[in-house]
Amino acid sequence: MFDVGINGFGTIGRRVATAIQRQKDMWIKGVASTSPSWKTQHAAMNLPFFISLKKYGENDSENFQKSIDSFLNYGIKPKGTLFDLLDDVDLIVDATPKRVGQMNKEKVYSKKNHLHAIFQGGENGEVARITFNALVNYGSGIGEQFIRIPSCNTTAMLRYLKSLKDVAEIDRVFVNLIKRGADPADHRGGPINDYVPGEIPSHHTEDVISVDPTWEGKLITHSVKVPVTLMHMHNVIATGDFPSRDKILESFYDNPRMIVIGGHDGIPTAAEIFEANKRGDIQQIMILEKTLHLHNNTLMFSVYCHQEADVIPENVDAIRASLGFDDPLESVSRTNKYLELENTKKSLEKFFPVY
Question: Residue 173: beta bridge partners?
Fold first, then answer.
């Protein structure tokens, strides 16, 4: 049984906590956060709760005491500090805001020789030697003290690129990312009425290559933010030597973290799929079958990616890998089983069948 803690209880931290609670081979010893809110109140109702700081330095004891008082005023009684939690776990999942994880590693985690840590895609690649995807480089993460999970979009790309590479000889891949402007609960994000294009290539190119170096010189990515909240969308153009369209679809079907979406009446929108899934998380990525077009040596298709959810299974697998579990297929199978991903897949394939 792996003893795990979570530092940060926002979009990713809350979902990772739920995912770990559903596993049979790991246990949450507690969660930590920096400030009181409805989220931390919810955490304290269901899990041992600890206080972390936004910055660590010479006045940690004084700052912890101030934080304890603010939590008590909010009706939350912490069990202790982040240091207390770290002494009681094998691994900490850092789900703090971007760039905070690097500071936590330098100021706190690295001083605990026994401690392993998982970081999120908001951190630079330097935070860990390994950037991780369970289906691509699980073996590289086995026993690693520090592992980074890449962003939701990079995770999505790694999944469908693996399925393509399994059946085709790829020359080039061009990915245009249509990114949501903010998560549904984020009232500070944007844009509201604009397009926000990014530079070419976007950071996703480098991130994919850090996990699978064979894409060096073959992949170019570009992103633009738009005023939606539900999901990201990828529009992919690939050139190379491809098998039949059916063989490509079969490879997508065989990927345990992808769903092939068809539809009775045209191409389902992200909102329709979200509603069909009872507005719940979709931890697989979704290939839109009606967009899959193969002409000679050029392949095109589109993908939906639920940005709040697709990295959650990767965090669970990374915990196992970091703590020495050495069977990648078994880890993916366990994670999917306990998160009931097959139920999501069957449900959406029923509502949006491929003809």
Answer: 219, 238
- Helix (H), strand (E) at residue 37: none
Q: Same domain, yes or no, for 183 and 229?
A: yes
| CATH number of the domain that residue 184 is part of | 3.30.360.10
Using the structure block, give the residue that is written with the tokens 């490879």.
Answer: 251
At position 325, the amino acid (one-letter code) is F
Q: Structural domain tally of the chain?
A: 2
Which among 152, 311, 323, 341 is annotated as catalytic?
152
Strand, helix or coil at 169?
strand
Decide: helix, strand or coil at residue 129: coil
Residues 41 and 86 in one domain: yes
Q: Give dist(CA 85, CA 104) in Å, integer.
A: 14
265-289 per-position pLDDT tens digit: 899 999 999 999 998 999 999 999 9
Q: Could you confirm whether 152 is annotated as catalytic?
A: yes
pLDDT (tens digit, 9 = 90+) per residue, 213-231? 999 999 999 999 999 999 9
**Which residues, including other chains, have CB under 8 Å from residue 1's CB and lie 6 or more apart?**
25, 26, 27
Minimum mean pLDDT range among 4-13, 22-31, 38-47, 142-151: 38-47
In this structure, are 99 and 244 located in the same domain?
A: no
Domain-terminating residue out of 93, 127, 161: 127
Whole-prediction pTM:
0.96
Dihedral class, residue 217 (left if φ above 0, else alpha if ψ from -120 to 50, else beta): left
Q: Cα-flanking dihedrals φ and ψ of residue 201, to 5°?
A: -80, 155
d(CA 198, CA 96): 24
The conformation of residue 109, written as its DSSP 8-state character, comes to G
Instruction: Give pLDDT tens digits for 157-168.
Output: 999 999 999 999
Return d(Cα 348, Cα 342) in angstroms, integer.
10
Last residue of a domain, one of 81, 112, 127: 127
